[in-house]
C-alpha cells in the first residue's frame, strides 16, 4: 500500500522535516506536528509547494491527552495510512545533576512522547484493517552512548516496544517498523563535539527510512556497516567493547 495520508511528528526540522518533504506531492495529505509554530509553518509551506495538502498541528507530545485528541481529530478527517513518530531530543549532560535532568527529559520525549504520538492510531487502524506505524529510534538503542544514557535508554525502549507490538498486531493489517539511523546532520546534532562515523544528511536518512517502510522492514538500521557494529557490540565481552565505546565519548557546546 502506498500511503496517501501521513502523520509526522517532529516535522519542523531535521529528519522530520526531511521526511515531510520526501512524501509531499499531489494527492498526499500530511499532518505535521511540532512544538515550534514558525519552523513548522516553514516546512508546511515547502510541502504545499510540492503539491501536498498539509495540516499543521502545534502541540507538545509530552501532553498525552491533548496530543491524543488532536491526532484522533486529524485521523477522523483524514484516515491515516502511515504515522511516523519522529520527534526527539538529546540534552547536554555532564555532572550527575545534569545527567539526571537530561535523562528524565530524554525519556519523557523520546520514549513516552513517541508512544503518545503512535498509540492513538492503533485502534482506528485496526478497525480499518490497514496502516503502518513507524517509530524513529537510533543505533544508540543497540550500542548505548556513555555520555547519553537517558537518550540511549529511550531509544532502546522504542526498539523493544516496536518489535513486540509488531508481533502483537500481526494479522491485523497494521504493521510496526522501527527506524534506527546512525549519525545525522541536524540542528539537534550541531553542538555535538565528538567522533561521528559515517554521518549523513537528514535528506539521506529520510530516503533510507522511506525505502525501509516501503519494504515493511521490522528494523530499518543504517548505515549498514555501522548498524552491524552496533548490533554486534552487545554480544562482545566488555573488555573488548570498551575501546570502541571510548571513541564514542562526546560533549556539547
Question: What is this entry, summarized?
Answer:
With 253 residues, the chain is an alpha/beta fold. It contains 9 helices and 11 strands. The protein is globular.
* Tally of individual domains: 1
What is the class in the CATH system?
A: Alpha Beta
CATH architecture: 3-Layer(aba) Sandwich
Low-confidence stretches: none
What is the CATH H-level superfamily? NAD(P)-binding Rossmann-like Domain
What is the global morphology?
A: globular
The H-and-E topology, N to C, reads as EHEHEHEHHEHEEEEHEHHE
By DSSP (H or I, 4+ residues per run), the number of helices equals: 9
Distance between the termini: 44 Å
Task: Kindly report the CATH topology.
Answer: Rossmann fold
* Average pLDDT metric: 94
Strand content: 15-25%
Describe the structure.
The N and C termini lie far apart (44 Å). A 7-stranded parallel β-sheet has the order 3-2-1-4-5-6-10, with helices on both faces. The protein has a two-stranded parallel ribbon with strand order 7-9. Strands 8-11 form a two-stranded antiparallel sheet. The chain is globular, with a radius of gyration of 18 Å. 47% of the residues lie in helices and 19% in strands. It has 9 helices and 11 strands. The chain has a single domain, classed as NAD(P)-binding Rossmann-like Domain (Rossmann fold, 3-Layer(aba) Sandwich). The longest helix is centred in the middle third of the chain and has 23 residues. Helix 1 links the parallel strand 1 and strand 2. By secondary structure, it is α/β, with parallel strands linked by helices. Helix 1 runs parallel beside helix 2, helix 1 packs across helix 7 and helix 4 runs parallel beside helix 6. The model has no long low-confidence stretch (mean pLDDT 94).
